[in-house]
Amino acid sequence: MGIEVGGIGGLIILILDVYAIVKVIGSNASTGAKVGWTVLILLLPLLGVLLWFLLGPKGD
Predict the structure, then answer these.
(1) First-to-last CA distance in the chain?
(2) CB neighbours (10 Å) of residue 49?
(3) What is the greatest pairwise CA distance in the chain?
(4) Where are the domains of the chain?
(5) For residue 24, which of 2, 46, 55 has the smallest C-alpha distance?
(6) 52 phi and psi angles, rounded to 5 deg
(7) Which of 36, 42, 43, 46 is nearest to 56 (CA)?
(8) Chain segment 1-58, per-residue pLDDT in tens
(9) pTM
(10) CA 30, 32, 37, 42 torsion-angle sign
């Protein structure tokens, strides 16, 4: 038994993940930080995007 996300919740998480990845790639952060955040968001979609919103770079 695993946690399954579907329907509108899954769509919202997908939209947030895509938004976060686009912002990460367009940021002024180092390449290593960009890769790290992108991998985290891709591997752990919900937790990754939450951590990025809380701990990620605040300025562009």
Answers:
(1) 41
(2) 23
(3) 41
(4) 28-55
(5) 55
(6) -65, -45
(7) 36
(8) 556 667 888 889 999 999 999 999 999 989 999 999 999 999 999 999 999 999 987 7
(9) 0.81
(10) positive
